[in-house]
Amino acid sequence: MYLLNDKHSKYEYIVYVRCGTAIPYLNGKIFTSYNDVCNYLEEIAKRHQRYNRLFYIDNKFFKNECDRDERCIYYKILRRPVADWEEIEK
After folding, report:
1. Ramachandran class of 52: left when φ > 0, alpha when ψ lies in -120 to 50, beta otherwise
2. pLDDT of 4-40, one tens digit each?
3. pLDDT value of position 78
4. Average pLDDT of the residues in 52-65
5. What is the distance between the alpha carbons of residues 59 and 65, in angstroms, rounded to a whole number?
6. What is the pLDDT of residue 38?
7. Fewer CB within 10 Å: C terminus or N terminus of the chain?
């Protein structure tokens, strides 16, 4: 849970995933820093490379080995701003 008075991260990050032409989903793991989500995607890339699976990471920091197509598992980082909690008066 976030604290009041800006004692939280400015943004939350999550990974958007689409396997081929299937319905996309959010991976469910929320990150509080951009570096953490980038490290997570690097680990995913290593796993895909180990098992020779096609994947595409839609981000400037990552150099993809294949082009994005319908056979790839597609990953993209999404972010949203986080606001302070507000107290409710009865």
Report:
1. left
2. 566 678 899 999 999 988 999 999 899 999 999 999 9
3. 96
4. 86
5. 13
6. 92
7. C
What are the structure tokens assigned to 78, written together?
A: 């999404």
Checking if the pLDDT of 73 tops 60, the result is yes
* Rg (the chain; Cα; Å): 16
Distance CA 38, CA 46 (A): 12
The encoded tokens of residue 55 equal 């994947």
Q: Terminus-to-terminus CA distance in the chain, angstroms?
A: 22
Q: Where does residue 31 rank: exposed (0-12), middle (13-18), buried (19+ CB within 10 A)?
A: buried
The residue behind tokens 């020779």 is: 52
- What span, in angstroms and rounded, lies between the C-alpha atoms of 58 and 37? 13
